[in-house]
Amino acid sequence: MRRTTGGVWRFASEYEPFVPREARLTLGEGDTPLEAHPELAAPFGLDRLLLKREDQNPTGSHKDRGAAYVLSVLGRTLPGEWVVISSSGNAAVAAAAYAALAGLRLAAFVAPGTPPAKIGAMRRQGATVFVSDRAVSLASETAKAIGAPNLRPSVDPLAVEGFLSLGWELAAAEPPVEAVFTFASSGTSLVGIGRAFQRAAAVVGSSRPPALHVVQGAAAQSIAGPLDRRRTVATASRLGAHGAAKTRRLGEAVRLVRRSGGGGWVITDDEAAAASAHLSAAGIAVAPEAAAALAAAGRAAHEVGIRSAIVVMTGGASVEGEGEALGSDASAVRSSGSIDGIAGCGEAAAGPAEGVASGVSDAAVSAPVPGDGGVHRVNSVAEVRAVLAALDRRLGVPR
Amino acid sequence: MDEPYMTGLALCPACGTEVEIDSDAVLGELVFCGECGVELELIALSPVRLALYEDEEK
Question: ipTM surpassing 0.95, yes or no?
């Protein structure tokens, strides 16, 4: 598939705050392929099915759109400073890539059980990773303590802006479709798409953007649940399990979906797996959440007669890690508060590890990236600050 | 049934100020008290009730 030029910055004049050209970061995100798949349309009861391949963004998910914008703003105003994020995966991986590009240093807080491959992807971009049972609140406390921006999408006021580009690309699809289906975790990208649809006539000349449909798993269905006619009992579902059960974007997300004429769809693990099998047969490997969105389009075709749809493939299939998740391997995560726990700093830069590491652990990384701050098991802000201070000293950053 | 609050108004549990809730509010939605600034969760719609919001750790 060919990438067109422009990407998220094609709409630079529409973003608030405005980012001047010289400050705009890009790795080629946005303007992702919109593929027609007639072989998938029929099994899901649709006449026309298009897949929006957000998995083909630079770090493999639509999060790159948000990160490109946010880190462009922050790189311009906070050069060389720390930024903080708590994320189960894609948001942190995207933030790490664009923070590195911006010359910012990322402290990423993750829960135990985060796939080693995700942590490896963050570290290859130079992020410092903190593993904690209370990653979300510790990230928030750390951000306040050190005066750093918290990039967690559900709380970052800048987080929505980059996703407007996705909404305008969807609205501009020709010929138009009836509906767009997208999986939501915090609802940040959903709100971006919905806000973009409201301005689609002015920005891309689309007077009737598609109806916006939100998809979630049973474990975290705060947005889709109230909108779904079917009641799906919250279970220990794996789909979207790392997402937030509560989100600050709930009210706006639901209102945008309703105003667009869309609906909500809670998808079970089995429904997502069935859709994933169809996608695999078509040679498309994407995350379970993306498959769930396709399953939702199928439900909508059957239950309310939708005939044409765009399904957003929000992310690619994760690289499966070998062995245990990092948090459960004590030897792989060094203790906090110790200079010895800072892997990679000061060592000869052998260059980034090739490919995407599977089963990567702290001990297994033999080719640390320059600036890689290592992985640290922490329980308090004091422990975090000790690590950050040691990294500052290592890099000669005055504090 | 007694309706202690008008539809669309609820008391902030932190300071007691009346908080106006949009007619299309969503159960679970978060709002801020305009008086004390605390973040609140809409925990009931009929009648409208608010509780202090606690960010869940996942």
Answer: no
